[in-house]
Predict the 3D structure of the following.
Amino acid sequence: MKAAALLLAALLAGCAARAPVRAPEETLPPFSLPPGSPASARAGFVEPVRADAVHCAVALSPGSRVRIGDTLVSRDRALRPTALLEVEMISGRTALARIRRGRPGAKEEAVRPSTELRQLAETLAPAPGT
């Protein structure tokens, strides 16, 4: 009985040990991404679009924070930019975007671009009708 009581006391004492003290979390400057975040965050996927279209629909991913006026870049599977898009309207989880440069393809990923990706997209040919 004494052995069981001593064992129980030792276990409880071990559980009551202090947790290691954590260093205070580093405060990130405003508008910066947390460490490990992708530079170009996915906003959604481009819906099929006609060859002569001036606008395209983007099916927004859950949790994406796209607003009217945001610039998106569509990119192919090799992550090369295919179009520069400007969001003009949002309805539910669909955004209507004006095609400013290039030509987006169906089911291409639409991202909020990093500075480098946006610069690459701005070198694409102007979209028809712009």
About this structure: The domain at 38-130 is CATH 2.40.10.170 (Thrombin, subunit H). The beta strands are 41-46, 55-60, 71-75, 81-91, 94-102, 109-112. The chain has a mean pLDDT of 82.
